[in-house]
């Protein structure tokens, strides 16, 4: 569990670094995904960074499941499942690049690749937001619950703002700013989750106390 969380956090951090460098190289375009288009300065760096981040999210999903901190019952399994769903969706987003300027309906003509890329990206963000909301409501670990609630209070409204901007104004500076802020908040939470799980002992190990060890033959 701790190894999966640590490796997941490192992959996520490395992927984030690659994506940020690619985004800056592209001149901070309206959409983050434009850094991965064929005409961008460093499309491979962006797309490989996103794939690394997807692997990191998968590692966190496994670690969260093993840690058993998401709460009891079906709802407790929802947070790891949401992250497990977000991982392949993020990988699809990295594997399928959008065309130049990443056009989106209803304001621009799109290709099939544009729709696949956008759909996977939006669904991945929604899955991460769902994981945050589940943990914020019922994580068994009080510290994780409080800090996730604080992160969700920032990230979820920002994701909602991105959706409103996409529908109301489409491609615009304000859309890009909201998108980067929302992604930044979500990634910051994922990195915190990796740190929290990496320093947490496995539940089975915590149940073995000194008396139990001394009683062993």
Automatic annotation (TrEMBL):
Protein's recorded name: DUF998 domain-containing protein
Positions of transmembrane segments: 45-64, 76-96, 116-136, 148-169, 181-198
Keywords assigned by UniProt, alphabetized: Membrane, Transmembrane, Transmembrane helix
InterPro entries cross-referenced by the UniProt entry: DUF998
Taxonomic source organism: Pilimelia terevasa
Superkingdom of origin organism: Bacteria
């Amino acid at each position: 569990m701790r190894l999966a969380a640590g490796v997941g956090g490192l992959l996520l951090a490395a992927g984030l670094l690659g994506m940020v460098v690619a985004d800056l190289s592209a001149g901070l375009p309206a959409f983050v995904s434009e850094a991965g288009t064929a005409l961008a300065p460093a499309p491979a760096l962006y797309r490989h960074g996103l794939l690394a981040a997807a692997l990191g999210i998968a590692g966190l999903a496994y670690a969260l499941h093993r840690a058993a901190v998401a709460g009891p019952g079906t709802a407790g399994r929802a947070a790891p499942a949401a992250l497990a769903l977000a991982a392949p969706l993020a990988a699809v987003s990295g594997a399928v690049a959008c065309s130049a300027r990443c056009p989106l309906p209803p304001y621009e003509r799109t290709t099939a690749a544009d729709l696949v890329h956008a759909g996977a990206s939006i669904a991945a963000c929604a899955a991460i937001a769902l994981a945050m909301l589940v943990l914020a409501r019922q994580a068994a670990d009080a510290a994780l619950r409080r800090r996730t609630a604080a992160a969700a209070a920032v990230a979820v409204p920002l994701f909602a703002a991105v959706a409103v901007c996409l529908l109301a104004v489409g491609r615009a500076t304000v859309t890009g700013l909201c998108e980067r802020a929302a992604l930044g908040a979500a990634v910051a939470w994922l990195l915190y989750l990796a740190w929290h799980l990496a320093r947490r002992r496995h539940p089975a190990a915590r149940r073995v106390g000194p008396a139990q060890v001394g009683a062993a033959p």
